[in-house]
Amino acid sequence: MKMTERIEAYLRGEMTAEEKTAFEELRASDPVLDQEVVVHKPFLETLHEFGEKKRLLSEMNAIHEQLDVAAIREEVIPKSTIIRTLWTKYRMNAAVAASVAVVAVFATLLTTGYFAKTNSIASGYNALRREMSKEVDRKIQRSKNELMKDINAGSARKGPAAPSTYTGTGFALTASGYIVTNNHVIDGADSIYIQDKNGNSYKAKKVYGHPQYDIAVLQVVDLNFSPLRSLPYTFKKQSSRLGENVFTLGYPREDVVLGTGYVSSNTGYKGDTVQYQIDISVNGGNSGSPLLDNKGNVIGIISGKQDNADGASFAVKSKYLLEVLEDLPEEVRSGISSNKKSSLAGLSRADQIEKIQDYVFVVKVY
User: Which of 105, 121, 168, 214 is the most exposed, having the fewest neighbouring CB atoms within 10 Å of its CB?
Assistant: First the structure.
């Protein structure tokens, strides 16, 4: 027997008592052989683990091939009296199948950062999407008769007649109709509209989403949308300083609302380095609002607040917005890079707000 085979037989317990005794005496007298045994042991353990995994997968696949879901459904649904019998018959197969499904789902949720977001929300983080289904919004409620009158008269509609499911805020990335908001604002949307300060609504579509940074980019795809003038603000690449005065414009209600405050921490909720903590009062619908400094630089995107903590609001830092823009078309990147100087610097706050309003929109999700 070759020495490798003898080592493996020894480690696997396949030797007789006499062979084992003789081998151990040889091992005690030969340091080289002893070292080979030590090295070979973890190698065999790894092979064994690999074999066990392959065996388990093979057994799972075999069980799945034996499952006849259609037959089980046919038996269970019309014959409720035999559910107990069926459960006894199929419970092992169902348990294995369910285990595989659970592992797959958990793996997916872990890779997408779902648990971090869910845990934050459950423990006091409030993402500021405004849920319209729980509000009475008379301004956007229209009867079928009124809608028919508009159509018959040939008048232009200002977006859908029915109230949206959710709303948030967005602001212009480029003059050509690219808008940025939070990813959670448009999550699950069937259709998206943006609405300007005059109440005009335009169809938009999602062109990019980054759940980890909670950033989404929309493109206006409505022929009635006219390009904007050059953006009055720029996007700050560097981090802002603690205590720096900031302000935001957003739509927690039907008309735009100003919020003012300061940067209270260079990290966000539970130390999140992607966010700032800011001392500004924000509410549902403020998600996606621009956060600007006194010079007219966009330093972040309002994303949420902490429940039961006054002034503890959060904004995604603008440098992470600029980072994800590398994945967007050249049209978007060039539209931002061409605006290198803010026209808001040196203006009073009232004048700054007047210039910005045309570039901030309600984001309506249906």
Answer: 105
What tokens were used for 95?
Answer: 């348990």
172: exposed, middle or buried (Cβ count in 10 Å: 0-12, 13-18, 19+): buried
- Location of structure tokens 């285990």: 99
Alpha-carbon gap, residue 122 to 116, rounded angstroms: 10
pLDDT at residue 281 is higher than 60: yes
* pLDDT tens-digit series, residues 294-327: 999 999 999 999 988 777 999 999 999 999 888 8
- For the chain, domains (ranges, CATH) are 3-110 (no CATH), 166-365 (2.40.10.120)
The predicted model scores a pTM of: 0.61
**Burial zone of 133 (CB within 10 Å; 0-12 exposed, 13-18 middle, 19+ buried):** exposed
Give the end-to-end CA distance of the chain in Å, rounded to a whole number.
Answer: 75
Contacts of 42 (CB under 8 A, 6+ apart): none
**What is the pLDDT at residue 95?**
53
Using N-to-C axis directions, what is the helix angle for 3-11 and 17-29, rounded to 10°?
120
Mind listing the pLDDT tens digit for each residue in 337-353? 556 788 999 999 999 99
**How far is residue 237's CA from residue 322's CA, in Å, rounded to a whole number?**
7
Which pair of tokens denotes residue 188?
A: 């699950």
